[in-house]
Amino acid sequence: MTWAEARAIALRASPSAPVEEVPLSTARGCRLARPLTALVPVPGTDVSAMDGYAVAGEGPWRVLGRVLAGGRAHGEVLKPGCAVEIATGAPVPEGTTSVLPYEAAHPLAPTPPTHDSPTLSGEREGVWVAGVVQEGRHVRRRGEDVGLGEVVLGAGTRVTPAVLGLAAALGHDVLAVHRRLEVAVLVTGDEVIGEGLPEPGRVRDAIGPFLPGLIAWAGARVGPRLTIPDGAAPLRAALMPHPPAVPDRATSVPPGDGAPASLGDGAPGSPAQGARRPSAQKADAGRVGWEGGAEIVVVCGASSKGPADHLRAVLDDLGAEVLVDGVAVRPGHPQLLARLPCGRLVVGLPGNPFAALAAALTLLVPLLKGERYEYGERMTLAVTPAPASPTSPSHRNQQPVHAAHQAPRGHRHSNTRLVPVRRSGKGAVPVGHDRPGSLWGAAMADALAVLPPGWDGEPVELLELPD
Ligand SMILES: Nc1nc2c(c(=O)[nH]1)N[C@H]1C(S)=C(S)[C@@H](COP(=O)(O)OP(=O)(O)OC[C@H]3O[C@@H](n4cnc5c(N)ncnc54)[C@H](O)[C@@H]3O)O[C@H]1N2
Ligand code: MOO
């Protein structure tokens, strides 16, 4: 299968996330399932936009009282020549024609008024202010910002902090959102350790640590993460969704935690799921939250053809439909995508960490983004001369694009190649250090350049790396 076909299949297989009503406090990052409408107008009534005086008609004005935001409203209609002292956000009395800010207000001494005030008969009493106002100024009218029932955001909008504030202002306590897809992670490999310095023959898990960031970046939720021993039985037990189960030697980390816990102390693998008592299954399930309903399970390692690589056999055993079984891409060719009979999707990532990252960008990110997936921009690859000799010290950092680009016709690579690059004014520059077992190049890169089979120097698509 070509790399482009594999990505297209993953995009088509993207599961739709269920809709649920969640409180505002947990909605951030989700997508709105329905348009957001105003349950109340904003402002809810005519209010002052300034601290000062709500006035009616021409000045000077006799000040009849004071209205604070959240306090008692002025109960009577404001008649021409009258004012109330008012706070920003407080409801202006009916009859208000504008607000005179404190800065523009001049208090007047208690002398006879210059015109016939309706509230005075000849003498000016109490507090008076004067000033220049413009009709309607500094009064926010009911519904002026958002009208009652108005649709302010469409379905599909991502819930950002600003969206949460807006929803609250419009009267919402809960939002109908598409729940973020949940991804469970199974790290396989008896040689893989979760922390500390690996002894010879052991290796630090380098995939488990990058997956949570990648999954969150793609808009999904990190579910349970388990480290399971090599062997078909633990893998089968961990993949079996009904009833939820976890092998005895599996250890788990709560979502979003650090590195996966290490393996147990060498006890044999768990018995097959069917041999376990229901109570034990339940306890294990509770321990790891596996019943949380992850729509996608990522299996790291066990994807190839070695004696400890059981993924294909186990999937076959479970009656899974295999959608992608190996891809003509370097690195990452043993990657896999399958659907279990219950609908849960399984993504198999190769054990080599850079190969796993490349495979995650090929299959997992399109699955998680679905309709939101965007193809990368195209850019020219800035190629520099290849090292003089394969044995020269710089050879291990050589940029493999050159060899292929310069290869004679008919001998070009039949695989797509994913090459870590940095953007520059000259185009996308390969950063090297791109062997399947090392994330060094990817760690220095902005993106992976997609060089199709037979690439001949034309601009290439850049697959964004999670920031
Ligand atoms: N006969 C064949 N052998 C291999 C093939 C093949 O087609 N035929 N493909 C090679 C390629 S390419 C890759 S990639 C690997 C994929 O192997 P697996 O997915 O089965 O993974 P493992 O064998 O378990 O491990 C491979 C390699 O990666 C290290 N590893 C595993 N997990 C982790 C981890 N979480 N963090 C860091 N490193 C990890 C493991 O120690 C091995 O060195 O198969 C090739 N072989
Ligand atoms: O997936 Mo492997 O090279 O292609 O490491």
TrEMBL record:
**This protein is called what?**
Molybdopterin molybdenumtransferase
Q: What is its EC number?
A: 2.10.1.1
Which top class of enzyme applies to this chain? transferase
Question: Its pathway?
Answer: Cofactor biosynthesis; molybdopterin biosynthesis
SUPFAM superfamilies named among the record's database cross-references:
MoeA N-terminal region -like, Molybdenum cofactor biosynthesis proteins
Q: Where is the composition biased (Low complexity)?
A: 385-394
- Domain MoaB/Mog stretches: 184-370
